[in-house]
Amino acid sequence: MFRTYDEVDERILDATLGRILQVGIRRSSLDDIARRCGLNRITLYRRFSGKDALIEAALSREIARVLAEATAIASTTEGTAAQIEETVLFVLRLTRTHPLVTQLLAVAPEEALGFYTVRGEEMVSQGIEYIAGVLAAGQEQGVLAPYDPRPVAELVARMAHSLMLTPTAGVDFDDEQAARAFIRTTIVPLMKYGIRSGGDAAVEGASGPERTAGSK
Predict the structure, then answer these.
(1) Confidence band (pLDDT; 50, 70, 90) for 211?
(2) What's the DSSP call for residue 24?
(3) What fold is seen in the domain 60-197?
(4) 181 three-class SS
(5) Residue 51 half-sphere exposure, CB side, CA atoms within 13 Å?
(6) Domain locations along the chain
(7) Average pLDDT over residues 137-162
(8) Whole-model pTM over 0.85
(9) C-alpha to C-alpha distance for 56 and 71, rounded to whole angstroms
């Protein structure tokens, strides 16, 4: 799903992220990034074909890191509902506290909105693919009800992106108790049972699967 990088690529991406957090995107030139990582522009072009591709790669890598951490949290949490609650809470918290959100707003506020709306399609798409894969795996293990995972994955991914852009409306996600209550009563049943009409979800919720992700 995500591209893998060799040591030189990682060095370039680290330099790119560092420069973005220092001065913003527009003021981060390839010359700046090349100097920061001790390489030349030709090497950067050969590997990433230009500044836009480099910025997108740096963003994609950060998303991959967040999702890898979410996977680690799920693997160490017992119970399907608790796994969903802990991982969703983690991701929603990161959408508000990650340096690419907070620091970019601090150093280049005029760029931040454009950055996350123009590049929002890629962010949401990566989130959808990841969540849909997790839901499908849960269905194969029998811990989630059988349903089409992609609409649910899209709702959750779009919610996370929306929260990043508009963090203060509605539920106060800085209040962990309020955030957990929201996730527990909306996202957990949504991901366990899917989008159902009428009372189907409530009926299945009374007798649906409740095992951990690793159980048979």
Answers:
(1) very low
(2) -
(3) Tetracycline Repressor; domain 2 (1.10.357)
(4) helix
(5) 13
(6) 60-197
(7) 92
(8) no
(9) 22
